[in-house]
Amino acid sequence: MWSGERPNVNDLRIFGCLCYGLTPAQQRHKFEPKSEKCILIGYSSQTKGYRLYNPKTKQIITRRDVKFFEESAWDWSNEKGRDNNHLWDLSTFDPMILDPTSETNDLNEAGHENNTIQVNDVPSTSQNHNAVAGPSNTNEVITDSSSPPQKVRDLNDVYSNCPVIEDYVACQFALNIRDPIIYEEAILKEEWKKAMKEEISSIEKNGTWDLIDAPENKNIVGLKWLYKTKVGKNGEIVKHKARLMAKGYSQQKGIDFHDTFAPVARFETVRTVIAVAASLGWKISQLDVKSAFLNGILEEEIYVEQPQGFEITGQEDKVYKLHKALYGLKQAPRAWYSRIDTYLASQGFIRSYNEPTLYVKKEKEGNIIYVCLYVDDIIYTSGSSCLLLNFKQLMMREFEMTDLGDLKFFLGLEIHQSKLGIFVNQHKYAEGLLQKFGMIGCKAADTPMNSNEKFMCEDGADKIDPSRYRSMVGGLMYLTHSRPDIAFAVNVLTRFMQTPSKDHFGAAKRVLRYVSGTIDYGLWYTPQNGICLEGYSDSDWAGSIDDRKSVSAYGFNIGSGAISWCVKKQNSVALSSTEAEYISATATTCQAVWLRRILEDLGFKQMEATTIWCDSRSAIHLSKNPALHGRSKHIELKHHFIRDMVAQKQVELKFCNTEDQTADVLTKALCREKFTHFRFKLGVKEFELREGVDV
C-alpha cells in the first residue's frame, strides 16, 4: 500500500498448525533429535522467525528454519492425566505482541537465536474469562487469585517428582571431580593458577609468539582457557591441566587457514603392531609430547589477543603474532603432523605409504624399530634396547617429552605386557559404561544376544527416548575395539538408532549384562615362531528382516589373537547365499591386501597367498572361474576384484565347515556353546585366568 507493490505472503502459515522447528547444533547433544514438534502461535516481532509452542516442555521458542504441516493439528486428547491448568490457552495469547519482560532474545556464539519462554501453570479460558478487565489487558495473562503464581511449585510436588538415588550413587556424585569452566572460577584455586602459569611458560619457552602492535585490517583470534583434571587408571588425580585455546571458529578459510586434515593411526594398525611385538617378544614403550600442537610451524599470519589474566601491564592493546600453532586453530593438527613427519624423515625413518602414521627405521646390523603416532601419543617398539634408548633421547632433544615407560594405557586400551605375551582390554572403560547406565552388579548374561530373537524397526513395542539408546549403543561401539565378540550384537543395535523401541533397548541392556560378566576379557597375543596372516569370511543371507539385506563379516588373526574384524550390512540385496558369500569374500580380500602391505612395511612380507577360510564352495568356485553365469551375471563389477587377487596369489579361498567358521560369531547370534568356542578362537580370553601375566 505504501510502496505500490504487492506484499509477499509466502511466509504466512496457518495459525495453530503442527510444525517442526530445527534446533541449532550448538543447542543439542549429538544423540538428541534435530527438531522439536511444536505448534505455530505467531511471528517474532524482534527478528526474522516463527514463534512456536512446545506442549511437552511448555516452552515458547523462536525458530527460523521450520517445516510446517498445515493440515495437521496437535492431538490434545493424548494429554492423559493432565490438568487443564497445565495446558496453554491460545485464546488469551496475541501471537503478534510479546511482553518484553517475559521473553529473552539472546544470540549465542554461532549467531543462532535462543529465544525461549517457560510457560508454567497457565490457567484455562474459563478461569481467565472473568479476570480480563478491558482492552488494556489484552496483552496480559491474568491468573485467578486462588491459583498459585507462575513458576512456583508446591514443595511436596517437587519431592514427589524427584528420582530416588541410592546411597552409593550419591557418594559417587559427591566424589566426582568438577573442573572450572571460566577463568574467574579457576583463579580462586592455587592448583589451577599453577597450571595456567605452566602453560604460559611452556608457550613462551617454545617461541610460539611475539608481542606486537595490533595490525590494521587483520583478524584477531580470541583465546580461552580450558581446564581438565587428568585421572589415572584407578581414578586418582594425576595432573591439573590448563590449556590455552584459540577460538578457531572465528578464523576465515582461505585467509587464516587452508588445509586442515591430519591423519591418525587406525586401531587395526595399533593392534597389528602390538601383535607383531608380542609374537617377537618385544616390549612396547610410550612417549607423550607436551603441548604437541605448539610445535607446529605456521605458514599463515595469525594474530591472537593476550590471554586472560596474563595481560602485560601498560601494553594491553597489543596482540601476539604466532610463529607456531596453538590448540584450537584450524590448522594446528596439520602443522604438528607436518613438523614431526619432517623430523622423523630427517632421522632416517621411512613413512608407510599404506598407513601415514606408521614409521619404520632399519639399521645396517639388521635391527629395526617401529613408531606409531596418534596426535601427541607415540608408541614405539624394537628388539634392540640400544635402538629404543637412542630413539627416546632423539625425540627428547627435539621436543619436550614425557617418558611413560612401558605401554600401559593407549586410546582407552589397557595393555599388560609380560614374558607370556601382551593382553589388551578396556576394563576401565567398560566399568564406566556400566556405571553410567546403572548396570553395576547386574545379573550377567552368557551371550550378548539371544539366538532366537530377530529385531525389526516396527516391532509393535512402545517407542523410547532415542537419546539414551544412542548414547548406550555409541558407548558399546567404542568397546568393540578390543571386544570382537560383541561386534555383531552392536551392529544389529545400530540399525535402530532413529526410532528405538523398548525391545531394542532391552537388547542393548542384555549386551551390557554380557559385558558385566566378561569385564576382564580382552585380546591375548602370545609369542609365535613366525608372522602369518590368516582370515575368515562369512555372511548371513537376508539377515535383516526390514530390507532383506545380508550381513558381511570378516576377521583376521596373527598368531593367537584377532587384529582386524568387521561386521557390515551389504549395500544391495543378494539373490542367493552364494552371492552374499561372494560379496563378503571380496570385502575380506580388500582388507587382506591392505594388511599384507602393512606387514610388508614392518618387514614381514607374506610370501605365500593369505588364506581366507570360507564355508561356501560355490563362492570359492566363483572366485577362481567366471562360472555360474546365470546366478552371477548381475553382480556388480567391483565385487569381481577378488578374482584378480586370487590369480595374483595375493589371497586363496579355502573351504571350512560351518562348525569351524570363526567368522560365524560375527554374522549371527549363536548358542552359548558355539559362541564360547568361536570367542576363544578370536583370542578373546579372560585376563585373570592366566597366571604371571601382570607385570
TrEMBL record:
Disordered: region residues: 118-149
Family annotation (InterPro entries): DNA/RNA_pol_sf (IPR043502), RVT_2 (IPR013103), SH3_retrovirus (IPR057670)
Domain Reverse transcriptase Ty1/copia-type, first and last residues per copy: 206-450
Domain Retroviral polymerase SH3-like: 17-79
Designated name of the protein: Uncharacterized protein
Organism: Mikania micrantha
Lineage: Eukaryota, Viridiplantae, Streptophyta, Embryophyta, Tracheophyta
